[in-house]
Each structure stands twice: as C-alpha cells, then as structure tokens.
Amino acid sequence: MANNHKVSFTLNGKPVSVDVEARELLIYTLRERLAHTGPHIGCETSHCGACTVDIDGMSVKSCTMLAVQCEGSEVLTIEGFEKGGVLHALQQAFHEEHGLQCGYCTPGMITRAYRLLKENPNPSEQEIRYGIAGNLCRCTGYQNIVKAVQSAARKLAAAQTAA
Amino acid sequence: MIPAGFDYHAPRSVADAVKLLGSLGPDAKLLAGGHSLLPMMKLRFATPSALIDLGRIADLRGISQAGNEIRIGAMTTEHELLNSKLIADKLPLLAEGVSQIADPQVRYRGTIGGDICHGDPANDHPALALALDASLVLTGPKGERVVKAEGFFLGVYSTLSDTDEILTQIRIPVPAAGSGWSYSKFKRKTGDFATAAAAVLLQMKGGTVAKVSIVLTNVGTTPIKAKKAEQALVGKALGEASLNEAARLAMAACSPTHCPRGTPDYKTAMAGEMTRRALQTAHARAKP
Do β-strands B224-225 and B208-217 pair in parallel, antiparallel, or remain unpaired? Predict the structure, then answer.
C-alpha cells in the first residue's frame, strides 16, 4: 500500500516531476514540494477556494484533488500570472480597485476570475458574483473584488481590440 | 487533513475498471470527481484500500441524443452539463438543477454519475433523475443492465448498484414538448446542500394538469417522489387550492432528520414551500 507515484505535469509553463504518495493532495505538492505557496490552504474542506488553481482549463480547488490526478496536466497558479515584471490585468485591477484587504483569498480569487473571463470575457455583475461564488473573502470585500474583475475585463477587451 | 494511505489505479477503459473492481474487492472505491469521496477520506470517514480513478476513461464522458433519449456518460461533469446546448434545449430541468449544485470549482470536477452513485439524499441529481424518469446503465463483470432511477436509491449511501458494478451512463427521455419544469432549491449559502428542494416536471392540457412529477431532495433517506401530491394534481387546474393540497401531500411524504439546517418540522415546511414554488414556476413555463 501507499506506493509512490512519479507524476509529471506542467506548472506555469515549466515541466515538473514529483514522487508522491497517492494520498497526497495537490495543494501540498504545490506548496511543500514545488515551493509554490501562492495557492493558500484556507478551510481544507473545499469550501473557501483559497487553494484554487487552474488545471487544463478548469478552476480547481487543489485541496480536493490528488497530485496523482495531475499526470500530464497543465497547471497554472498565481505565480504564473506576472510576465517579465508586468502584472496580469487582473493583478493590476485588484491593486487599483482595492480588491484585496488581508490578501488571503486573493490568489484563489484572481485564478478563478482568470478562467471566468476566459469563458465569458464580458460578464455582468451577476455573472461575476455567480462565477466567483466558490471563493470566500474573509474580509467580506466582495464589492471591490467584483469591481476589479469588471475593470480587468474592460482592460483585457481593450487590449484585444488594440492587438 | 490527509487521507489514509491507499493504492491508486487509473484504468483507461471501462473493461479494465470492472476487472480492477473485481480483483481489488469491496474495500476499493471508484473515484469520480472526488468532491464527496476525498473530503470523506480526509476526515477519515472513508478509508478505502484502493481508489480506481475513472477520470482517464474517455468513453465515460459526453452527451448525445439517441432517438428520443439523451445519453450522458457517467463521468460528464456538472460544468459540461451546464454548458451543453443539448441539455439546455432538451432537458432544461437538468440544467436548472445543475446550476444550483455547489459552486463553480466543484462543478468543474463533480460528475453526474458520482453524484448519483454516492447515494447521498442531500445530492441534487437523484431527485432530478427521478423527476426526469432517467434510467441508469450499470456495467459489471456479466455485462450491462439498465435500471430505473426510481427504485435505485435504497437509503443513505446505499443504492441498487452491486459492489462490482460501475454506473456508466444515464439515459433520460426527452420530456414531451411544452412541458414546464423547475428545480426550486432552498439552501443557506452557495455550496451548501439543500435544506429542502423540489424537482417538478409538468405537462398541462386544456388548462389542467395532464402529468406531473414531483421529487424532493434531502427530506428523507432517499429522494422522495411525492406520488400522492402528483395524483392529487392530475386533472386539476393549478390554483391556490390545488397548490396548497399538493404542498400538504408533499410535506406528508417527508421524514427529514434534525441537523444544523433545521428541525424536521422546519425542513418539512420548506419542502412544502419548494413544492409550491416549483409547481408555480413549472406552470408558468408550461405550454397549455
């Protein structure tokens, strides 16, 4: 029992390989083996969304997925958002709109919002609230989080038009 | 919170999964989306000796139409159901139910088959499956058998599926044209299970009820088909009196237990109210 598994996947565009027990949850692999501490452990019971990462086009709570299930996957964490010293539009918008207070939920919020905007580039306020319903903000700062997502959506759309 | 140790298997075909399930014995569990099983394993409520991950079996995913039937692979995710044009067009009741399950992250991983097989009366798919008169394809060492969703749920975490069988497909007849529908779910917050919910599928004819299904979530050990409420409505117009009577009969079919969501009386009252609202919404959507 509990044999180790070699698991290979892409993390923020770079191939990684780890030896894990089958029971190891992805959040631990990311934080403790791969030193990616952006995804946070909040509730550890798949309620809060602080551990949200993007896997093969899905927003996933990494406390509720086994690392062995990631074999061959493309995993994106908050560490993969900034490119060459330039913040992603969502990161910039959270900064400008005061979309974070304590910051604990922010990596999960931004990672979830990223996939939401990929699927729906121009969401209504209601669609944003429904789309981030799996992420809890313990500061209850939802108003500015929603504003930040709206702002990022506008900027991404403008950048798309300009390109 | 870390699960107890287990062996992990990720077969690529249903045949291999069935073989593994047979050889590993009853302590092995099937892993679908994992959003019920993994939390239970983390809390050590479940300590399977092995997990058979169905996530690599492509044949278990997808939505298609065969004649008058929609066929859904058991590993199709809630997210896929919610974004399927076929489901939106042909089974809007299912789409409406799925939209109220858990939260976006859970819907990316959670599957219709896992939700059904878990046998949790708090889950939403069991009531939806009954309301839609779904059939379930179970695949075991002796081949396939098809059973009705009605009768599949035996009790809390208990279903008709044998320990060597895998639910591979859900088959749902397309409801009659003009049918009204509603899944009315009362929950404390996003991500919570229903305090009570009602699935309704309704056919009207000449201003009266021709056919109706009413199935309740989380007010008993299985989804509850409120048959007396259904029978009472057939042939009647949907007005204050008939709605009250249907709600009363639906409540009489409930036997919820006490939990942090409320007392049995409260949950029963909410089931009555959800029945009333689901019938009203379905009525507004039904074509006469």
Answer: antiparallel
